[in-house]
Amino acid sequence: MSTHKLQNDKLDLIHWINELDDYTVIARLKSMMNTIQKEDLSFAQKKAIDEALVSIDTEVLESHDTVMEQTKLKFPHLFQK
Length: 81
Hints:
By secondary structure, this protein is mainly α. It has helices at about 5-20, 25-40, 45-60, 65-75. It is built from four helices and no strands. The longest helix has 17 residues, at about 5-20.
């Protein structure tokens, strides 16, 4: 497929999506987009994500506020105004 044809096809799709009024079609397109993006992850990336999700369920986590306080104490020069 030529670059010109590809660009035209993408513009046609953008126009078609822009004209859609059916949210179920939009939801399906978003789901498909997310699936494609997930498939682009390497095995190592998928493994790291899975490990992070498991750690969320099994480990005690600190709140965002606590982490920010610790960060400000450790790196005060990054928070100077």
